[in-house]
Amino acid sequence: MKFPTNPAQSLKLLFYSLLVSILLLYLSFLNCEPKIAKVKKRAVSLVPSITEIIFALGKDDCLVGNTIYCDYPEEAKKIYKVGDFSNPNLEKIVGLKPDIVFATMPEQKIIIERLKELKIPVFVSQPVSIDSMLKEIKAIGKILGVPQKGESLTMALATELDQIKPKNLAIPVYLEIAQTPLITVGGGSFINDVLNRAGGRNIFGFLTQEYPVIDAEAVIKLNPKVIFILHPLAKKEEVKKRIGWQKITAVKENRIYDDVNPDLIFRPGPRIVQGIKALMARISE
């Protein structure tokens, strides 16, 4: 074998040899690169609305536990149950070894404190408006590693919300969420914002509590034009028979509604547009 005696030729040959070696190494790297599996985040949801958000983001494969009230979509019923909304089982949650637990205040305050004591990360959901709900959806998307899906879901919801144009505005409305005692929604609540967007005016919107206890006389005095019963313990025919309520405009005009799915109103998540439209359709009748 003859070696080049010209220094220039030697350098040229060395250069091409080095180039070929780099190319072969690069191709080898492409063909033999080890497959590194992404670590799947393990999530437990104690909040039905967040369970719905997780499914809407396409991250239900991360959901290892939820509550008995997490019933939508249908697949959510198949997830391992850690208890009910008010009293989730701490041992069951810890046993699932979650990377993140989604909870809400104030009802789950005790379990949140216990989880923090155990150094388990907790995301506390407490939206007081549609806008804060959209921000939470974005935050959940980031936590679960799908920020783009979080952005696209919030944009889609915001677009749908902007298209909702109530025919009537500021119609006096009474929302009842419990019968004994009578409980309604105050001005600082998420549901108050939902009602406003549907064209209603909460007759108890001047109250600062989220869910204040009120008396029947106050409802009669404030005289709503529309009444929504958002709990299963009373029907409109029973409401009509309440003492003194025959004076209320909503009762006189038979504008009492007990047929709206409460989950569409109470759950700050992807189905809130349906909830607003359901309220608006009845307010506009």
Automatic annotation (TrEMBL):
Residue ranges of the TM segments: 13-32
Keyword line: Membrane, Signal, Transmembrane, Transmembrane helix
Keyword Metal-binding set for record: no
CDD domains on file: BtuF
Domain named Fe/B12 periplasmic-binding: residues: 42-285
InterPro entries reported for this sequence: ABC_Transporter_SBP (IPR050902), ABC_transptr_periplasmic_BD (IPR002491), Vit_B12_bind_prot (IPR054828)
Protein name (Swiss-Prot/TrEMBL): Cobalamin-binding protein
Organism listed in the record: candidate division WOR-3 bacterium
